[in-house]
Amino acid sequence: MTATAEFNAGTKILTIEADGLPTPVSYGTFPNVNNPNQVTEQDFDHDFYYRGGTFGITRTLDSNVYAQEGFFISIALSVPDNALLGNQIQVGDRILFVFDRGTANEEKKVFIYRGTEQTAIPGEFWRQTDQNLQLVMEYSTSGRSGTYEYHDQRNGRGSTPLGAIGIAANGVILFNPSAGSGGNPPVNFNWNAAGAGAESYINFGEDTCGGHPENTGQYHHHDSEFLECWKDNAIMASYNDYYGSSQYNGDNIRHPDGHSKIIGYAFDGFPIYGPYLYSNPWDSNSDISLGTSSYRVKSEEVEGRPTYGDSQQNPPAGSLMQDWEYSEGLGNLDSHNGRFCITPEFQDGTYAYFLTAELDSETNLIPQFPYMIGLTTREIIDVPPNNGAATPPPPPDDDGGEVIPPTIQIALQPANATHNVNQTVTFSITAAISPEDGPKSYQWFRSTDGGFSFAVLTGATASAYTFTALNYMSGYKFRCEVRGPLGLGVTPAQNSPLTSDVATLTVTGFGDGQGDSDFSSTDTKFDTTSISFDAT
């Protein structure tokens, strides 16, 4: 067994079992001069919520109707609606609106929110007054009206975690492009593990497929270089019926129409495709294009970074993770390196990630940052413990015996709380590391949909999180993630990161209008076809 997957249509849980080896693709020699680790077979077994064939959570404002006159669609706003704008819906967000779902007039369109700044650019929308939104269309009509729903990205503001972010169809783990603290980067910076600009100065011993093992022996990829290895001699086609049943001009990693096939799944449940997509996201008859990144290297070095140069002390622009920034509209993919679209597998539409690459003069694919997933994810990544790898044995102590691995213990869990509107709310946690305490980090998360998904609370990185209770927050849920012990060369606790219990906020004095329950419904349309990564 290399990799198998089962989907439970009732629970919408995708369960994957794998041995972690890149079979049937061969891998290089390890240990090698730049990588001291040996590739080992892993007992990988992980399940996560499957979102293929969906756009995420279905939402409406208090009024679910719209009206179009000329180029502009208007949607009425209530007082609670206004509280969402600028908070849970932020300037620059891409929002998918679906008009008249299930009718002959159904239309899907992505709009960018511009706040209170007036715009007349098609594909953008703004808060014209505190009583209405105005969406700018590409065509003019009169007297059009109907109902709508929308899909926002409020659950996708968390940073893409280090380590495992998904799994390829042959059971190999896909990693964030950051090398973390590896390779002795400049203080407070991280190497771009797949960055060509850094390769002359830092080498992690990758093989010709761009993969390498970490200290657990787990083999993994940081970018899309492995696609060329998959294509060699139609290796994946012989391994899996999905890749062997059809091809595009001899390329079994693409459908007959040229669109990429699914190469794996992100651990937030959305599919990851190769680099080829429909130029019009809603038209399968449109031309085939490459997915293009909307990330670019910053024109000036960030504060504290060594000057752009050509040495390890002054590494080239782009060789550090902090060199990159998202620029709306630079490419055809969003900040998560994905988009709302239709695909050969999901004719009714889905959210999907795409590998980013450029073609050189010889039609070879050259990986482009961020390679697989952007600096934030569409939903919270459900990371398997220890990245799904076997836990390495504890190091020997001075007497030759085994050292007891550290463990994080939560002495005081966050508790449910009830507060009046505008009162100060504080959720707190008390944690310690046994047998010897050490430095820890904290990150608070919030769920606005009844615990279906949790989003990172930016800046909430202390053992206590304090904020002001607002009426629409009633029912919000909070939890904290603890990591440690921290420090260069320090072995993390065997259960790090450890997630706390969930605490629920109840806000009293809740007035008329929109409540959190208006946003808790989910799109239950899933592809119920059995999913299998294995051809047997």
Please give a quick description of this structure:
The protein contains four helices and 32 strands. The chain is mainly beta and 536 residues long.
Describe the structure.
- The chain is mainly beta and 536 residues long.
- The chain has 3 domains: 3-50 and 162-284 and 305-322 and 347-367, no CATH class; 65-151, no CATH class; 393-519, Immunoglobulin-like (Sandwich).
- It has 4 helices and 32 strands.
- It has helices at 79-84, 226-231, 235-239, 241-244, and strands at residues 3-8, 13-18, 44-49, 65-76, 94-99, 107-113, 124-129, 132-151, 164-168, 173-175, 211-213, 219-221, 262-266, 271-273, 276-278, 288-290, 295-297, 324-326, 338-341, 350-354, 357-359, 365-367, 407-412, 417-420, 424-428, 430-434, 441-447, 455-456, 464-468, 477-483, 498-499, 503-508.
- The N and C termini lie close together (9 Å).
- 41% of the residues are buried.
- The model is unreliable at 511-536 (pLDDT under 50).
